[in-house]
Amino acid sequence: VVQFEGVKSIQQVFKALRYYFSNMEISISERLGHITRVATAKVDGELVVTMRRAVFLKLHRPQFAVSEAALQDLYEDVMLKTVRSIQGATYSLSSPDLAARKSGHSRKPAKKRKATYLVRKEEKDALQEKLLALKAELAGLRAQTLTPEEAVRAGSLLRRSIADYGTLRSVVQQQQLGIANIHSMLSPALLNQHMHPLYTRIWLKKEWGERRATLMSIRDEKLTNAYRYVSVRSRLMGSGPKRSSEERFETADGDFCCVRFDRIQFEGVKSIQQVFEALRFYLTNMEISISERLGHITVRDDYDRVKDRGFNARVISTESCGVTTETNSIAFTRMFSEENLSCGGVEEPCGVMTCDFVDEDELYPYRGSERVRKDVSGAVVLMSNRAKVGNASQDPSDKNGASAEALVVTMHRAVFIKLHRPQFAVSEVALQDLHEGIALWGDVMLQTVRSIVYATPLAESAKQLEMRAQQDTTNMEEANGSTSPNTTTDEDDSRPRETDRRRPTKKRKATYLVTKVGEAFTLFPLYSYIHLGVDDDARRRTLLSIRDFKIQNGLDFVEARSRHLDLLNPYSSVEHFVDAQGNFCCTQFDVIQFSGVRSVREVYNAAMFHFMNEEITLSERLGHITVRDFYDGDVGKFSNCRFYSADENGVKTEMSTANFVQFVEAKESPSGKPFAVLLRDNVDVDDLYPYNSSECVRRDQLGAVVLTVAEKARDTNTAEQGLENETGGGGERELVVIMRRAGYVKIHRPAFPLPELAQQGLIKGMTNWLDVMLATMRSILAISP
C-alpha cells in the first residue's frame, strides 16, 4: 500500500502508471542496469506485451543506523520508483514502437524510439522560433497601421525616453562613483589603527597562580567590551538573514591583516543554549576540527582552564604549504540570562564569547625564528528571537510548518587576525597560501557549530563529547598517579595557591591524542542592461556599440574605488548579503601585486588565457563540471558566452556573460605607461538562448580588472632572496604589475526547491570563480620563461 502525497489528482498517477507499462523495458534497463526486452504478439487483433521476469529478493534488517530515505530506496520496487519520479509532470503516453506494432508491420524492423526529452526539446525550439516570427510580424503590422501623426508622436516619445534614461543613468553613475570614492577614503583608516577595539595588552608570568589571576582580572572587562563593540557594529546593518564584511590589507611593517564581521542565523534550533554549547565545544576542541576539516596538522601545545569561565591555550598548526604558525590566545565565555543582565552591562539575554592574543608569555615565549606568529582578537554574541521561517516544522503532519514561527538564534561575529611578517625565509607561493587562508579557522568554527546544532539523533551532542573528553583526561591522570595543575574544578581555585607556584612536571596531552574523535548598491556600478536578439550580426553590433562605454565606466569605477589606497600593498574587501528579492550577493575589491614579471602584456596574456579556457580551469581546480555552451565575439575586443556548471552537490548553475577587453600601449596611454582593462557583465535577456530557471540556478557575474605597472624595492625576505639579504644585497628595484579587481556575484533565488546543504554550498562558493582566475594567472606566470 503506497501513498502519493501532494499530487493533483488520481488521473495524474494513473497516467504515470500507464506510462511505466508502455515503457517498462526502458525504465528497468536504465534504473537497474538489467538488459530487458519485451516480446509482442497479436491476439484477436489486440497487441499483447509479454515480459518474463522472476525475482526473489531478501534484504536483511540492517544492524546499524540507516535513514528512512535509504530504507525506502532499498525496499521500493522499480515500478514504484518510476511512478514517483514522473509524478507532477505530463508525459506523452503514445509510443512510436507501439504505434508501429499496432499498424500490422510487426515483421519490419521497428524504428529506434526517440527519447521523450529530445522530442520535447525539438517541439520547444520549434515553438520558440514560431513565437519570435509571430512577434516580429505583429510589430511590423502595428507599424504599418500607424498614421503619420502617430508615427511622429511615437518617435518623439521614444527619443524623449532615451534621453531621460541617459540622464538618469549618468546621475546614478556619478553617485555610485562618489560612494566608491568614500569607500576608498575609509579603507586606509584600518591600516592606521594602532590597535583593534577588541585588543587588550596581556602579559602572562611564569607562575601558574599569577597567570590565572591575570586572566580572571580582565574577564568581565573583556566580555563587556565584546558585547558593546558587536552591538555598535551591527546597529545600522540592514535586514536579512546573512551579512558578511571582510577587509584584508598589509601594514607598513609587512604584517598581513584581516578584519571581518558576520551575521549568521540558525533557524529551527531548540534554544540559544544549544548554539552556545556548540560554540564552547569548538573552542575546547578546535585543534581536532582544524585538523579534520582543513588537513592542517594542529596541536594544542598547552592548556590552562579555569572551569567554564575562561582558558589560555597555545595552538601550533602546520599549513598545507609547510609553514608552521603559532597562536597564544585567551578566551572567555558567559551566558547572560534575565537574572544576571546587570552584572555584564548587557541589555538582553544573550551568549557572549571573546578571545584575544597574549602579547608576552614568560613561560612560553614566541619562537619567531621557526614559526609565523598569528594573532586573533574576536567576539561572538548570540541572541534569539522568534520569526517566521521556511520549513520551520520537521513534522510531515504539520500542514502549517512552512509559515509557522520558530526560534531563530542570530550570531554576530567580529574578528581581527594578524599574520606577522615571517622572520625566516619563506617562498612567495607559501606566503600567498598563508595570506589566502588567514580566515579559514573562522569558517571551520561555523561548520563545526552547524554540524553540532543540526546533528542527527544518532550523533553525540557537543556536551556528551566534551564530557567524554574530560573523563578520558581524568582517567589518564589517575592512571599516571598525578593531577594536572592546568585544570581546576572550582571557581575559588582561580586564586594563586602555593602548589601553583612551580612549573607543572607533566604537560597536558593534546586533546586530539586524548580523544580519538554591498547591499549598498541596488545595481552594481558596472551593470548595464543588455538584451541580445536572435540575429548574430545584430548581437555583435549590440555588444560593439557599448564596448567603449563599458571599458571607460569600469576604468572610472576602479580608479575611484582605489584612489586612496596604497597600490603597492595587498588589499581585499568582501561583502556578502541577501537582497530584498532573496538573492545571494557578494561584492569584492582586490589590489594584487605580481612581482618578478616582465611586463603588463605578460600578465594580460595570462588573464586572457584564463578567460579563453575558463571552463577547463574551473573543472580542473574546483571539480565542478563546467561547459561553455556558446561562444561568439572578436578576440581582443568583445565576446559573448554561456556557462553551465554543476557543483559538488549536483546543483546546476547557468551564466550568460558579455566580455570586453582592451590593451593600451605606452605610446597611446595618457600616462606614458601601458595598461589593460578587462570587463564582464551579465546578459539580462537573450532571445536566442533564454535562461532555464526551472532546472538551473541563474548566476550573474560582473567585474572589472585594471592592470598597471609600477616599481618598488625588491623584497629580499623570501627563500630565493634570503642569501642575498644576509650578504648585504639590497636597494634594488623591480617591476611590479598591479591588478585592481572589482567584482559582483549574484546567485538568484532558485525557482525550485533546494536543500539547505546545497544552498550553503552555493553561498560558500560564490567567489570560487574569482579565486580560480587568480590561481590560473599565477600558475601561468610561474612557468613563463
Uncertain stretches of 5 or more adjacent residues: 45-55, 77-108, 391-402, 456-465, 475-521, 718-729
The major beta sheet can be summarized as:
17 strands, mixed
Q: Can you count the helices?
A: 21
Assembly category: single chain
Fraction in helix = 25-40%
β-strand percent reads: 25-35%
Can you name the CATH architecture of the largest domain?
A: 2-Layer Sandwich
- End-to-end gap: 71 Å
User: What is the average per-residue confidence, as pLDDT, rounded to a whole number?
Assistant: 77
SS elements, strand count: 23
Rg from Cα: 32 Å
Number of domains: 3
Overall morphology: globular
- At the first level of CATH, the class of the largest domain is Alpha Beta
Which structural category fits the helices and strands? alpha+beta
**CATH topology of the largest domain, what is it called?**
Alpha-D-Glucose-1,6-Bisphosphate, Chain A, domain 4
Explain this structure.
The structure is a single chain. This protein is of the alpha+beta class and 785 residues long. Helix content is 38%, strand content 26%. A hairpin with a 3-residue loop joins strand 17 and strand 18 (638-646). Helix 17 (600-612) packs across helix 21 (768-782). The protein is globular, with a radius of gyration of 32 Å. The model is unreliable at 45-55, 77-108, 391-402, 456-465, 475-521 and 718-729 (pLDDT under 50).
Which properties best describe this structure?
alpha+beta, two-stranded antiparallel sheet, Alpha-D-Glucose-1,6-Bisphosphate, Chain A, domain 4, 785 residues, 3 domains
